[in-house]
Amino acid sequence: MNDYFRSVIKRATGATSITRHEEIQELWSGYGQIMRIGLEGSDINSVVVKHVQTPKSDYHPRGWNTDIGHQRKLKSYEVETNWYENYSKHSNARLPECLAVDHHEDEVLIILEDLDTAGYPHRKRSVNWSEIDSCLHWLAQFHASFLGASPSGLWETGTYWHLETRPQELEELNDQALKEAAPLIDKKLNDCTYKTLVHGDAKLANFCFGPDGDVAAVDFQYVGGGCGMKDVAYFIGSCLNERESEQYESNILNTYFHYLQAELDAPNKALEEEWRSLYRVAWADFHRFLKGWSPGHWKINSYSERITQQVIHSLSR
């Protein structure tokens, strides 16, 4: 990290010096890194810094080295800075406080509260029902916070897999029936009456857990407008296998909508009816992306195939 960004961190936190620099992870495809920065002379012991840089090579873990992908990633970081500067403080769902955003030449620095020291130190690779319940509660709080919000400066359509930004993956899709139905699935989701802001990448890895079961979430590169079921379906697919996804489907929806209705100013039966009907459509939408992007992916299973066939049949009638 250059001296300019070091000075930005110290100015934002009131620190006199930086005591340590720990890499948490590299950003996808070499676009920078996320770091934990230790501080001295400040009331804040540490911050998490997202440092975005244009990569020197065009490496992609799965071989998608294209200008479309590059532009999508660049926009995703613009979206994230807009999110933290203009939207994040309006969320009732717990997320890191943004201390500063700074642009310097072709680099971006986002300085965030360290959720580990704020009481959310745990990351999970597998979850029990209580932990799923907590994440569904978070999603309900998030969606209720932004119901009807305009995604100005964000993705007009949230999520990283929506059809408009994935023409190459659609072209590679070998499932002809799904390929033909993809625009109908996309339109069904985009035409919903009730829209909110969706997190857009609400996988298990982006949730931080506290010792009492509370959760916070990170990574808002793909936040934008849409139906809340996109987040719910994607989250469930990230932490349950096909048998569990099918077995708990009713419980998942009942739990989410219990929390969502509690967050609204008044019960909204019409919203719940519409979004419940779109849960499987949202599942099929992600399945479409996955089959084109990585046909051998572990998330492609009989439950997803069966749901998708049902959705295609219902939309083609």
Write the layout of secondary structure elements.
Layout: H1 3-13, E1 17-26, E2 32-40, E3 46-52, H2 67-86, E4 98-104, E5 107-113, H3 129-145, H4 167-172, H5 176-190, E6 196-198, E7 207-209, E8 215-217, E9 224-226, H6 229-239, H7 242-247, H8 249-263, H9 269-293, H10 302-316
Antiparallel strand pairs: 1-2, 2-3, 3-5, 4-5, 6-9, 7-8
What does this 3D model show about the protein?
- This protein has about 325 residues and is α+β, with helices and mostly antiparallel strands.
- The chain folds into two domains: about 5-115, 2-Layer Sandwich (Phosphorylase Kinase, domain 1); about 130-315, Aminoglycoside 3'-phosphotransferase, Chain: A, domain 2 (Alpha-Beta Complex), CATH 3.90.1200.10.
- It has helices spanning about 5-15, 65-85, 130-145, 165-170, 175-190, 230-240, 240-245, 250-265, 270-295, 300-315, and strands at about 15-25, 30-40, 45-50, 100-105, 105-115, 195-200, 205-210, 215, 225.
- The strands form three sheets. The chain has a five-stranded antiparallel sheet, with helices on both faces.
- A hairpin with a 2-residue loop joins strand 4 (about 100-105) and strand 5 (about 105-115).
- Helix 5 (about 175-190) packs across helix 10 (about 300-315) and helix 9 (about 270-295) crosses helix 10.
- The longest helix has 25 residues, at about 270-295.
- The chain is globular.
- The N and C termini lie far apart (about 55 Å).
- The model is unreliable at about 60-65 (pLDDT under 50).
